[in-house]
Amino acid sequence: MEESLEYYNQINRVKMNLVLFMAAIETIVKVIRIIRQPNGNALLVGVGGSGRKSASLLAASISDMAVFEIEVTKGFGMSEWREQMIKVFL
After folding, report:
1. What is the tens place of the pLDDT at every residue in 29-40?
2. Model confidence, pTM
3. How many other C-beta atoms lie within 10 A of the C-beta of residue 65?
4. Cβ(57)–Cβ(63) under 8 Å?
């Protein structure tokens, strides 16, 4: 896992400084297992600062997948959602 983190930091502009304790490694492995399934997707829920985004980014990097992030703003509605989905699938 340390090698994967080092590789991620080499190929990405924004570096991740992670402490890979057992719970973090388990989360990363679970995300990898889920996203490698056909049509696999996950909604990670937790308190802010718990490492959901870092785990997802590292898992995607290990699985050679791209990450698409939707930023929800105050005026975000169904039309904005559709526009974001069009960007993902085109």
Report:
1. 999 999 999 988
2. 0.78
3. 14
4. no
Token pair belonging to 5: 């983190």
Q: Is a pLDDT exceeding 90 seen at residue 28?
A: yes
Distance CA 67, CA 5 (A): 16
Calculate mean pLDDT across residues 15-19: 89
Phi, psi of 16 (to 5 degrees): -110, 125
DSSP track, 1-40: -HHHHHHHHHH-SS-------HHHHHHHHHHHHHHTSTT-
- The 10 Å CB-count burial string (b at 16+, else e) for 14-42 is eeeebeeeeebeebbeebbeebeeeeeee
